[in-house]
């Protein structure tokens, strides 16, 4: 963490944080992440990859590309992500990994909204392609 502050914010574009599941202890990961999220380097970075659990979606929605662990996403979260993706300059893709035991119900809720349509093995709304399975939800810009 102490090395991150030596890098000029805005120059550092990619962030990647990986750790073993229980090493260091979860509390240490939470403190580490809380410190990083408050840095200018975090706020100005463009891409993030991590297996850390991120609790607050709003801390993530400035990245143009994102691959993170997120325990559960409901329809409200998905709509927030979807709407945020449309406002991120040069948005590419964001993936939320975890175990989504009710992903079929999640899909039904999205389809019921009438704003998202099934296109075979994925869903789209004209701007985003949304792929959903038990382990990952991905929002990707349609070119």
Automatic annotation (TrEMBL):
Protein name: DUF38 domain-containing protein
Pfam families, sorted: FTH
GO biological process, one term: innate immune response
InterPro entries, sorted: DUF38/FTH_CAE_spp, FB224
Residue ranges occupied by any DUF38 domain in the UniProt entry: 3-102
């Amino acid at each position: 963490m102490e090395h991150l502050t030596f890098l000029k914010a805005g120059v550092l574009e990619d962030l990647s944080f990986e750790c073993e599941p229980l090493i260091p202890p979860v509390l240490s990961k939470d403190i580490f992440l809380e410190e990083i999220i408050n840095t200018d380097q975090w706020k100005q970075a463009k891409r993030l990859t991590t297996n850390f659990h991120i609790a607050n979606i709003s801390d993530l929605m400035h990245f143009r590309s994102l691959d993170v662990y997120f325990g559960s996403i409901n329809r409200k979260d998905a709509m927030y992500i979807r709407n945020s993706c449309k406002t991120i300059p040069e948005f590419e893709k964001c993936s939320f990994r975890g175990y989504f035991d009710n992903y079929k119900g999640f899909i039904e809720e999205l389809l019921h909204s009438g704003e998202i349509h099934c296109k075979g093995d994925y869903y789209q709304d004209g701007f985003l392609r949304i792929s959903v399975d038990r382990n990952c939800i991905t929002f990707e810009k349609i070119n």
